[in-house]
Every structure is written in C-alpha cells, then in structure tokens.
C-alpha cells in the first residue's frame, strides 16, 4: 500500500443512486480519506436506460454520504473525456464497471486519465448476467484503457483474463451495508422465508417457487423490484397454487425498513442461477439470519455450509427443496441461527485497500515499454 498521500478520483455510482455499489463507492471514499488520501468522487447524472438500470434517485441517504459530482451520462462520451482529462492530474483513478452500457463512457474517462494517472477498474460484473451482443467486446475495450483490474471472485478473474492481458487482482467484496441496527427476531415467527433484492431471471426466484411447492406450511416473502425478464413470477405463483403462501412486495425497499423485515423471517434464500459477488449474505448475517444459497459467485466463500447456512446446486429445484427441508428439520434452524457471526469487515477492507493502492509491477513495466 502507498505510504504517501495520494490524489484519488473515484468514478462510479454514488448517492443519490441506490443499491449496493453506491454504498461501496461511498464507503471506499470515506476509508481512503481516513487513510489520509485526497479523494474526489465523480458519479452519473444518467446511469442508463430505465428498462435496465434504476433511474429514480433516493430522496434520503441510506448511509454516510460522501460529496459526489454528477458529471457523467451514459449517452455522452464527450463528458467522460473531459472528466478523464481533469482526472489525469490525480495519482490514481478508479473506475467502477458493472454494466457494459456504461463501458464506452468509462473507456473515454480511463483513456484520457491514463495520460497522467494510474487507472484501475473495479469490475463488479465482468460480463452481464443477461448477456447481449457486444458485451465481451465492450469489456475488452475498457480493459485496454486501464492499467489493472480488481475483481471479487476467482471465477470473475478467469472470465476477465479471457478478455485482457492486464494484471487482475482478486479481493473479497468488503461489507458496505446500509444503516439500521438489527432487531431481535419477532416472537412466534416460524415457517417464513425471504427473498430480497432485484427480481431477475438469473436470480432464480422461479426455482425457489417450485421448490417451495414441495414443502408444507412454509411461506415466502419476496421483496424487490421485478424486472421484465422475471415478470411471470406472479403468474407462476398462481400456477403452482401458492397464492396463499407467497407475499409479493414489488418495488424498492428503503433501508430503514430492512431491520424489521429481516426480524420477521427465519432465513434468507438466494437461489441464483449465476452470481458474481453479493453482500446479501453479510446483510443477512448482520441481522442474525442463516442463508440458503446456491454454489455460485461468492456464496460458497461467505457461507459455511451446514454451520451458518446451507448450499445447494444452482437451477436444481430438487436440491433447493432438499436444503429447505433440512432447514426445517428439528433443531436445525436454531443451530444455524446460533452459529451466525459477523464478518471481519475491517480485515476484508484492509486487504481491499491494499489491493487498490499497490501498483502491480507488470502494469508499471508495460507502461514503460509503451512509453506511457
């Protein structure tokens, strides 16, 4: 890690945008400032088309706010070039890549900034879960404009290595949770599961509903924005005869309501078909909940199978039903809840900052070879 104060520009989603990544960018800015660095955050005035990305900002923050300038639009690469030229006076520029819709603008930022600054990309999604023509090309293009990349799982490193020769580091996604202290479990709650977050096909809510149909006397609460690729969820509830056992709450849930929601259920279920890195396990554990999840993304790294949660095969209704039956075996839920502990967040954050701030010798050598 650098032993001197650096001028750092962070480029990515930040308040008033909602979701996990704005919380990550904000927490990262505060922690870098706490290490003595001079930090500027540049965020989006327009993130992308409404059908794919949130377009309605928050009206109140869900955590500590860091000043951010809304200087970017996904439609306007020229603004990205101007930002990059200004950011070139920084020592380090960090661009947060999570959708290829923004990749052309981030490419202009990185290419212009790299004339004077070291540029690192945090790749939250190497290739989108809902893949489109040109995704791999756009990610590869962005990687050509940076010095190095950071990903959150070994699988993501493998995927990115197929698209670039830039140095790629793996650092576990650090916890960046919304405000709100945990609530004690609500008395008398038993037999209620929770799916929480955006409802998209890759997240496997349809698989969860089919598994739920194989259990008796267990209810499910689904809370989150339902995207067009999963719009048949409501129809599936009726087709499976689950209308009396499934509560759908479409829409964004403000962070202030999360503690009460998590106190009203037995466990969080994450039946994803695919994943990269998610902080939902850390969020559940913070609120004392065990997690049932598939073996994708960072779930196997954050769940101790059989201790504080249960893992199963992605896309497999029978195996998910098996895990849910096990959850409700006599004494099993109580044992899992008793074993839930907090993540050593400070240790994870320390490693994350070191990864971002420590230049890779291969990157420096390549820049020298190119005369950059």
Automatic annotation (TrEMBL):
<dbReference type="Pfam" id="PF13439">
    <property type="entry name" value="Glyco_transf_4"/>
</dbReference>
<protein>
    <submittedName>
        <fullName>Glycosyltransferase family 4 protein</fullName>
        <ecNumber>2.4.-.-</ecNumber>
    </submittedName>
</protein>
<dbReference type="GO" id="GO:0016757">
    <property type="term" value="F:glycosyltransferase activity"/>
</dbReference>
<keyword id="KW-0328">Glycosyltransferase</keyword>
<feature type="domain" description="Glycosyltransferase subfamily 4-like N-terminal">
    <location>
        <begin position="19"/>
        <end position="162"/>
    </location>
</feature>
<dbReference type="Pfam" id="PF13692">
    <property type="entry name" value="Glyco_trans_1_4"/>
</dbReference>
<keyword id="KW-0808">Transferase</keyword>
<dbReference type="InterPro" id="IPR028098">
    <property type="entry name" value="Glyco_trans_4-like_N"/>
</dbReference>
């Amino acid at each position: 890690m650098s032993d001197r104060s650096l001028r750092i520009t962070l480029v990515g989603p930040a308040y008033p945008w909602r979701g996990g990544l704005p919380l990550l960018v904000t927490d990262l800015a505060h922690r870098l400032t706490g290490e003595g660095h001079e930090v500027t955050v540049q965020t989006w005035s327009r993130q992308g088309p409404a059908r794919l990305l949130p377009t309605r900002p928050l009206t109140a923050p869900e955590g500590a706010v860091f000043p951010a300038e809304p200087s970017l639009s996904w439609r306007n690469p020229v603004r990205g070039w101007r930002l990059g030229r200004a950011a070139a006076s920084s020592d380090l520029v960090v661009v947060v890549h999570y959708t290829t819709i923004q990749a052309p603008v981030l490419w202009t930022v990185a290419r212009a900034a790299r004339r004077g600054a070291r540029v690192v990309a945090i790749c939250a999604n190497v290739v989108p879960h809902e893949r489109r023509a040109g995704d791999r090309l756009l990610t590869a293009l962005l990687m050509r404009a940076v010095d190095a990349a950071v990903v959150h799982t070994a699988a993501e490193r493998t995927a990115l290595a197929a698209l670039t020769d830039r140095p790629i580091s793996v650092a576990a996604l650090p916890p960046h949770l919304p405000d709100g202290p945990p609530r004690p479990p609500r008395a008398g709650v038993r037999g209620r599961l929770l799916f929480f977050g955006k409802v998209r096909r890759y997240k496997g809510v349809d698989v969860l509903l089919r598994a739920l149909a194989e259990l008796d006397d267990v209810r499910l609460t689904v809370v989150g924005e339902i995207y067009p690729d999963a719009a048949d969820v409501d129809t599936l509830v009726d087709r499976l005869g689950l209308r009396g056992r499934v509560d759908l709450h479409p829409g964004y849930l403000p962070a202030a309501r999360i503690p009460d929601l998590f106190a009203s259920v037995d466990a969080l279920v994450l039946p994803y078909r695919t994943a990269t890195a998610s902080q939902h396990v850390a969020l559940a554990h913070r609120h004392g909940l065990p997690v049932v999840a598939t073996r994708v993304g960072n779930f196997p790294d954050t769940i101790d199978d059989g201790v504080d949660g249960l893992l199963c095969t992605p896309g497999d209704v029978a195996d998910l039903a098996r895990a849910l039956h096990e959850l409700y075996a006599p004494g099993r839920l109580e044992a899992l809840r008793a074993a839930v502990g907090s993540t050593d967040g400070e240790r994870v954050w320390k490693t994350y900052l070191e990864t971002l701030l420590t230049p890779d010798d291969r990157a420096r050598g390549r820049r020298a070879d190119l005369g950059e």
